[in-house]
Each structure stands twice: as C-alpha cells, then as structure tokens.
Amino acid sequence: MFMTALITVIAAYLIGSINFAVIFSKAFDKIDVREIGSGNAGATNGLRSSGALPGALTFICDLLKAVAASGLGHIIFSYIYSQTSNSLYVPIYGAYLCGVACMVGHVYPLFFDFRGGKGVAVGAGVFFVCSPYAILIGLAVFAIVLLFTRIVSLSSLAGTFVTVMLGIVFNTKGDDVLLWPQIVMALTMGIIIFLKHSSNIDRKNFLKSLKDHLTFEKEDSNITLARAAVAQSVERILGKDEVTGSNPVISSINQASNSLLILEYSAQFF
After folding, report:
1. pLDDT tens digit string along 209-250?
2. Residue 245 CB-density burial (10 A; 0-12 exposed, 13-18 middle, 19+ buried)
C-alpha cells in the first residue's frame, strides 16, 4: 500500500509538471512565455504576453490539473484507508500531499527544465478539493484587492494568505484525522507561493517610497499640475477669496491626490 501511495504522489508531481503557459504560448504565438515579460510561466504572464485566450486557458488548465492531482490523492488514499484503516492514509492527507506535489511540479516542472510558474492557480485548485469554503472566500478577497489596487501579485498574495488561514480553520475533522498535518501542508503551499512572489516585492524601497509620500517629501509633477488645474477651476466657481488651503473642497482635492500618490508608487513594487 505504501508503494501505491508513493506512486500516486509521483503521478501528482508529473501532472503538475505539465506547464500550460509554455504549451499555449508556443501553440498560439510560437514563443516561450518564460523568455518574455516577467519570465514567469504562469497565467498572468501568459495573458500579458500572448493575449486573453492563452492566459485564460492557462489559468483554467492549471487549476484543473491541481483539482485532478489532489482529487486523485483523495481517491487513492480513500481506497487504501478503507482496506487498512491506517490513519496515515486518511483521504484528506492524500488530497493535500498530492496537491503539494502538484504545486512543486508546477513550480519546478520536470518536462520544462524545472522553470515553471508561481503556483497561484494550482493552489486554488488544491483548495477546491481540500477546503472549498476557504478558496471561495480567498477568491473573493483576491477580486476585491485587485479591484482597488489593480496589482495582480498583491491580490494573489492577499488571497493566498486568507485561503491558507481559512483552510486551517475549516479543517477536515474525524476520528483518525489530525489537524497538524493539514496545517503543515497548507502552510507549505502558502510559503511556496509567497517565496515565488518575493521578486515582486522590494520591501525596503516600497516602505521608503510610501514614507516619502506620506510625509510629502516628494510629489508627482502630473498630480501637482492636475491639482493646480482643479484648484483654478474651483477658484473661478467660488471666487478667489474662497479658495484657501482650509477650504473643504481644496482639502478634499489634496487628500485624494495624496492617496493617488501612495497607490501609484506602491504599484511599481508589485
């Protein structure tokens, strides 16, 4: 039975090694997505480099391969557990273990020189099998953060964090089911995703720029010009004497433009 479980995990890794970003970029544009854009073999770079259809197909196929790998682990471990009653082969362990193997295969694909993606879509697929409620809430968080920031990597990390934490909260319970293996494997996937996104974040420069703009040590020239143009328009409407720094309209303009500065300079680090 051990060999059956081991072969299942290896199969999950091989499933993960099928990199659809590379496959679709070559099929549609005769290019290797890893040689252009961010160099990442994932859905986002595929979308930016090859267009909407290859990007969407990459995301869907990456998600489905993770569902297949994790689902396979759940089925095989269920069978082994039914035959042996050995608590090592609890079905949720198989689902998580094969999910981790699939993610490792996606990030370090055997078939593509061990240069793969960052694992976000794969992680989503694994949690669809292991913790559906967690991934649904995580996807909602991803969408909300993306709506307000338009930063895919930041949205991915926010969604990943929420999904992993809720995956632990909504853990599978049972007589032979322990919590800690689920925590370890859920955190392992989260850590892989965060590590693969580390190149997107320059924390030191990000915090420095954020501090600069919070303390108004710098000011973007375009926003300054826009602020001045709006102030002139307000002056014509209200009259010159009414336009002062304490005027609520002008204060609102200043606050809004400062918020734009923070978002603009934050975006360049993700």
Report:
1. 444 444 444 444 555 555 565 556 555 555 555 545 455 555
2. exposed
Residue of 43, 35, 36, 49 whose CA lies nearest to 61: 43
The number of residues in the chain equals: 270
Answer whether 155's CB lies under 8 Å from 149's CB.
Answer: yes
pLDDT tens figures, 59-110: 999 999 999 999 999 999 999 999 998 888 999 999 999 999 999 999 999 9
Please report, for the chain, the start and end positions of each structural domain, with discontinuous segments joined by +.
Answer: 2-201, 204-267
* CA–CA gap between residue 23 and residue 185 (Å, rounded): 29
The position carrying tokens 């720029």 is: 209
Angle at 100 between CA 154 and CA 66, to 5 degrees: 80
| Structural tokens at position 185 | 């494997």
What does the DSSP 8-state code read for residue 199?
G
CA geometry: angle at 145 spanning 139 and 147, to 5°?
100
8 Å CB contact between 179 and 96: no
For 222, other C-beta atoms within 10 Å of its C-beta total 11
Determine what percent of the chain is predicted with pLDDT higher than 70.
73
Distance of CA 43 to the CA centre of its chain: 11
